[in-house]
Amino acid sequence: MSNDDILYTIALTKLGYISPDVLLRIIQQTGSGKTVYETRDHLEELLPESSKRLKDIIGGNWNDAIAYAKSEMEFCQKNNISILCYGDNDYPQRLNECPDAPVVLYYKGNANLNCHHVINIIGTRHCTNYGSDVICRFISDLKKLCPEVLIVSGLAYGVDINAHKYALDNGFNTVGVLAHGLDTLYPSMHRETATKMIEQGGLLTEYMSNTRIDKQNFIRRNRIVAGISDACILVESAKHGGGLITARISQDYGRDVFAVPGRTSDHYSQGCNSLIHDNQASLLLSAEDFVLSMGWENDKILEEAKSRGIELSLFPELTDEQQTIANTLEKFGDLQLNILMIKTGFTIGKLNQLLFEMEMNGIVRPMAGGNYHLIK
């Protein structure tokens, strides 16, 4: 994306309040903020269903917004901050599935936001010893079973900071999604951890510098925590805890949601127990259960295969049956096992065998939700 496209896309976010879902639709339909700027006087041609209020905002004075955008781009350049606009290759691709994804993100760090596996670990700001122990054990065991995972949270007190710290301790990359710009840090006492995360993960936000830290921002940032991840893990939450918001958004986005059970008498387990009871979250008892539920266990098989000297071929030859699967995935995109079975005509047993062989040769890989992806 050109600097002009970035400039006008940032400016678009500063014209006036436009809800995230409307902003996203504007960018999706026009292609870039620059196009919006160039067609601002006849917006109805590109966005015929626009309200009068939206037309007034976009047709208004862009001068201040452009000045803000130029200042922000200079700030980002000086501070080694990447500006990720919707449609960029480096933009978190999982957010493309979300109807209210931010059109601009600001990122300081070195982790790949589009790595193979991404999870978020969230919960109460009043994490108990039980919650801390669960996080420590889960992350430690996950490292042994599935070592390449990006762990996301909100850098808040309690569960969030525990998740980040234990991720760092176990060699995982970890990203904190912030509710303010990258010119400050809240809470400030987490600055030491945040500094480490920039070298082993990163900090991500949709907010420009000099953004006031507002309660509503924390609620909005939860959708990024949910959308950027394959799965949401709720460790501890009161009956009406903020972590439940992220869990609900994750459900709305079609993400897998897991909750750690606790005693019925524990205040900060009521939210988790309620989700499990209402079948809104899967029971999480161990890292092994989680990896199996997500279908990530073959990552371990691949690691073991590599350790035995089995090399993945860069240009593997396919059998006729494997080619049928490859052609199907090429035509229809990622597919779940049952759909793939219908479209190829193979039995489930035969299909599992073929997919395993193809995975071992680096031709396909399992994705979140039981989908299979063709590696091109």
Structure description:
- With 376 residues, the chain is an alpha/beta fold.
- It is built from 16 helices and twelve strands.
- The chain has a nine-stranded mixed β-sheet with strand order 1-2-6-5-4-3-7-8-9, with helices on both faces. The protein has a three-stranded antiparallel β-sheet with strand order 10-12-11.
- The longest helix is centred in the middle third of the chain and has 17 residues, at 129-145.
Summarize the structure in short.
The protein is α/β, with parallel strands linked by helices. Helices cover 45% and strands 13% of the residues.
Topology (SSEs and partners):
Layout: H1 3-12, H2 20-30, H3 33-38, H4 52-58, H5 63-78, E1 82-85, E2 104-109, E3 118-122, H6 129-145, E4 150-153, H7 159-169, E5 173-177, H8 191-199, E6 201-205, H9 215-227, E7 231-234, H10 243-252, E8 256-259, H11 270-277, E9 282-283, H12 287-294, H13 297-307, H14 320-332, E10 335-336, H15 337-344, H16 348-360, E11 364-366, E12 371-374
